[in-house]
Amino acid sequence: MNKKILLWSITAALAGFLFGFDVVVISGADQKLQALWGSSDSFHGSVVMGMALWGTVLGAIFGGIPTNKFGRKNTLLAIGVLFAVSAIGSALANDPYIFAFARFIGGIGVGASTIAAPAYISEIAPAKDRGRLVAMYQFNIVFGIMIAYLSNYLLSDIGENAWRWMLGVEAIPAVLYMLFALKLPKSPRWLLSQGKETEAREILKFIDENADVEKEIKDFNSHNEKSDKTETIFLKKYRFPLILVFLIAFFNQFSGINAVLYYAPRIFEAAGLEESSALLNSIGLGVTNLVFTLLGVFLIDKLGRKTLMYVGSAAYIISLSLLSAAFFLEWTGMAVPFFLFLFIGAHAIGQGTVIWVFISEIFPNHLRASGQSFGSSTHWVLAALIPSLFPFMLKAIGGGMVFLVFAGMMVLQLLFVAFMMPETKGKTLEELEDIILKK
Fold first, then answer.
1. Which of 386, 286, 436 is nearest to 46 (CA)?
2. Burial class of residue 153, CB neighbours in 10 A (0-12, 13-18, 19+)
3. Which ranges does the record mark as transmembrane (predicted)?
4. What is the pLDDT of residues 216-271, one digit of tens each?
5. For residue range 64-120, what is the model confidence (pLDDT) as tens digits?
6. 10-25 per-position pLDDT tens digit
7. 369 exposed, middle or buried (CB, 10 Å; 0-12, 13-18, 19+)?
């Protein structure tokens, strides 16, 4: 693999580390903040905990605009600024509304990163390595999640304001990420779409001096010339990729993954574990996520996207059914943690590894950021709704019924993989454009 492309892909994928850290770091402060501000379950879930996710929705809906207009690299730099401001603001907040606003800013960064980072990596990566390079964004997400759980555990006993340190420490990796991102070249496909062929040619030569740069430019331009720049992803001819993106994002969240990540300590305590044990088991979830994501990254260009989704779907159904049974039958001890580890492994090797790769592949070059925005928006609207309602649903209908619903949704996902999802491994973005638009 080209070392330059690997380094740039890792750098862009570090936006995923900030994404993962930001989304999960709040779990360590969850119940402390509710007690501190005396919030009701509904206010705490929808405002204190949920506001970051609504910021993510906004970032996902509108993140395609700066990604297209100002470029992938500049958008990635702006994302680093948003994460740093959010970390400092939430750490210094003295009431739930200022706290929620600071978290909302970080959420915008999360949503925009799900567009800019995968789009950037997919556009600089060769077809044979694109899956694992884009999947490094997901690896960094779960690495950020694991570090957030570990950081929360290490900081949990430092005093009354431990939650401030948990949230504020994110500013350090945010600033480091911005410094690394300054060294990234611009996406050559984006430059070509802006008519900057000379600059794109220089970067393509820099990426691989042995590549047939003129052929790459010719292939891009031949597809670009056929495209109408006034088109939107909602035209009839783009209905199939639009449905694919919607469904993979829909099923991703109806697995219950974000609810589990956000409320892992609460779920463990509901299953009878003490607070310290709950936080420690949360670290176990982070490690499991990391290990199985690494396995997914290794396999995605070997076995393909569809095979990983088959494996993940089957493991989802088994683990969620067992979790439901554990709550219905009141199993105690390590049953719930074990089944949650199995669930996290199922997510990591399937949906977790595949989603951002798949969404970044199936739209034409001129609509990639818009398609990515639609997929991310669907993902994050549901990622805001489901965790916001989770504390209420856990209390109202119980963990058994909640996890049973999630298991039923994963049966539907298995049918989606079997009958609708195309395989995209090993093909150039231009080849995929021709294949998918013919369906």
1. 386
2. middle
3. 43-63, 75-92, 98-121, 133-150, 162-182, 242-264, 279-300, 307-329, 335-359, 380-397, 403-421
4. 888 777 766 666 666 788 898 899 999 999 999 999 999 998 888 767 766 776 66
5. 899 988 999 999 999 999 999 999 999 998 888 898 899 999 999 998 998 999 989
6. 999 999 999 889 887 8
7. buried
CA distance 133 to 1: 10
pLDDT > 60? residue 278: no
Q: Report whether 55 contacts 103 (CB < 8 A).
A: yes
> Which residue, among 355, 349, 378, has the nearest Cα to 291 in the 3D structure?
349
Helix (H, G, I), strand (E, B) or coil at 5: helix
* CB-CB contact of 128 with 109 (8 Å): no
C-alpha 71/C-alpha 75 separation (Å) is 6
Query: Residue 44 gets which letter from DSSP?
Result: I
In the block, which residue shows the tokens 């469904």? 247
Residue-wise pLDDT for 367-379, tens only, equals 888 898 999 889 8
Integer CA distances (angstroms), 150 to 21, 27, 160, in order: 10, 11, 19
Across the range 398-402, mean pLDDT stands at 86
Name the amino acid, one letter, at 387: P
Residues, the chain, total?
A: 439
State the Cα–Cα distance between residues 437 and 432, nearest whole angstrom: 8
CA gyration radius for the chain?
Answer: 21
Do residues 76 and 369 lie in contact, with contact meaning Cβ atoms separated by under 8 Å?
A: no
Residue 191's nearest CA partner among 177, 205, 181 is: 205
- Structure tokens of 313? 């779907």
Between 178 and 42, residue with greater pLDDT = 178
Distance CA 218, CA 406 (A): 47
Buried b (16+ CB within 10 A) or exposed e, 38-52: ebeeebbbbbbbbbb
CB atoms closer than 10 angstroms to residue 177: 21
Place of tokens 């052929």: 215
Distance CA 352, CA 321 (A): 20
**Phi and psi torsions of 334, nearest 5°:** -95, 10
Q: Which amino acid is at 378?
A: T
DSSP state of 186: P
Q: Torsion angle, CA of 174/3/350/355, rounded to 10 degrees?
A: 60
User: For residue 68, how far is the Cα from the chain centroid?
Assistant: 20
Q: What is the pLDDT of residue 335?
A: 80
